[in-house]
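Practice problem: predict the structure.
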Amino acid sequence: MSALKIKKGSSKHSAYNLRPQFSDIEESHTLAVLVDNEAGVLARVIGLFSGRGYNIDSLTVAEIDHEGHMSRITIVTTGTPQVIEQIKAQLGRIVPVHEVHDLTVEGRAVERELALMKVASTGDKRVEALRLADIFRANVVDSTLDSFTFEITGTSEKIDAFADLMRPLGLSDLARTGIAALPRGN
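Answer:
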């Protein structure tokens, strides 16, 4: 017999309550997935999400090891903690997947995004667009007599704020890379 004494009616130490309790609140998570860089791997990862009705908020993919033929897929998705755990477990079962890291729960991470924004304006609006670009540390990467193309990097919130300010000044085109992320520290 076990030396552990349990009070009658106490569910704190019950064998039926060993599973972790999950919340119903949806959270955004950044997942880093290391995979073989081969045809069809991205399609399999995307298929996992679409087949189960999970949404992808941001997706970036690039080869990180040419000799080892490894790529890193960074996925930002939203779901309840239980759904996030299911996603991680299902990703881990895909054969060309080597590692799945939830950067949101594994500690602090650095997340950045790149955006290109074309702003078509003249006169005072053109001057204001340049002033705001300077404040946001955006670079002019193309200029014509009637438009600028700005390059900006930073958090998604920073890019959203810059885009919101550029809209009334003539924002005509926007391209975003999606989030790239790495854990902080060692």
